[in-house]
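Practice problem: Isocitrate lyase
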Amino acid sequence: MSQYSKDIDAVASLREAQGSPWGGINPEYAARMRAQNRFKTGLDIARYTAKVMRQDMADYDGDTSKYTQSLGCWHGFIGQQKLISIKKHFGDTKGRYLYLSGWMVAALRSEFGPLPDQSMHEKTSVAALIAELYTFLKQADAWELNHLYRNLDDARAAGDKSKEQDLISQIDNYQTHIVPIIADIDAGFGNPEATYLLAKKMIEAGACCIQIENQVSDEKQCGHQDGKVTVPHADFLAKINAVRYAFLELGVDDGVIVARTDSLGAGLTQKIAVTNEPGDLGDQYNSFIDGDEIAKAEDINNGDVVIKQNGKLIKPKRLASGLFEFKKGSGEDRVVLDCITSLQNGADLLWIETEKPHVGQIASMVNRIREVVPNAKLVYNNSPSFNWTLNFRQQVFDAWEKEGKDMSQYDRAALMSEKYDNTELGIEADKWTQNFQRDAAREAGIFHHLITLPTYHTAALSTDNLAKGYFGNEGMLAYVAGVQRREIREGIATVKHQDMAGSNIGDDHKEYFAGEAALKAGGKDNTMNQF
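Answer key — structure tokens:
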């Protein structure tokens, strides 16, 4: 007996036990509604997706070609359409996630209006977006299953037993649109208790994976902006512990923590770390602080701070802001220490924020980390802040120049120019870009590739294209040819926007509730019938 039939029988037994008051309940309809709402709470989602993500991590450890990917989404509808597209084109969602970008929450979801990525937005908006994304993904399940149910009813009406059994099999083996979300908690929005409280809200909304960075909460900057300030390891580890306690309290025992280090681009620290003996973690952190050696007491001015560093008295360089400077060129060493320390103290995955997409640079740091933690692996930001075209053209240029090729036809500083698009260098650079994720997964330990804010850019680009034509000479043709005709021909479900928004689900539910008396929207006069 199929699971679908078992579910119907289970409701039938309930109805029989309740007697005549439940006479209006159709067991098959109730079973359908249950299947359309597989995940009752956000914690159900978090527990399910944590297992999915843990299995993906194990699969990657065995085969680096099994890396995972995601795109950042700033609205539930965007996330929903992404997953519908993935299922349509690839048949399943294996290895595909969603990313919740703190940048996009700040820029697009704050009640203050657009904000920079500096943790100034309401922290509750982060958890709210997680809940919204999963609400839309659950609706995608209901939408797709509803079509299967309608097709099943049609097959029965036509007496097509083979088709009926095939549809029941599709219902029994239905793959949900629910996938893991890697959720950005920035630097924790306050002290460790604040981090714990927000992490709980995010997990209750459905997050199985939380990404936290080692910047100072009240000085937080976008990873691709200047002025980043890091904290001593003890401060960061307290927040990793806070997130783990939140997972454990809520029963998501295999929740995933991504520890992000911004040390590669961060030249400042707010604190001098506490150290108890030479070589401990605090002492290692302080060893990177830049300063001047103190030879005599007269070298110390009023208010100066003095530390012992490598057996010498050092006066750290302090800015007017009170922040201390790190030694120039110490970034990679600090990254490696950050990553090893995080993995040894509760983190599951790493995030190294870099200034360019360069497999060799990433691998050089990961290989050092793996000398201590062999299974270390990364979540990597394929950032729109990189000029990908210029970066890879310059990387190819440098590689060819090193090989001794004649590069006189190329101007390295001007390689972004359109005139290089169809040149040998331009074509080769595009191949490097196309293969970047595969190469980095294999050579640099990257388990998960994400683009933080792609849909911010796609929304702007598509809107610009439509506005340019619609308000120009094309008029209505700009929409018809540029949007609707493409939707029809490319099988984009939103062309039937009433259906996508739930109109057919609502009609069927009305029939469940009221039978022939139901007033439905999908009759012969519904203009959606034109599609």
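Discussion: The CA atoms of residues 355 and 504 lie 48 Å apart. Students who identified this feature from the tokens alone can consider the problem solved.
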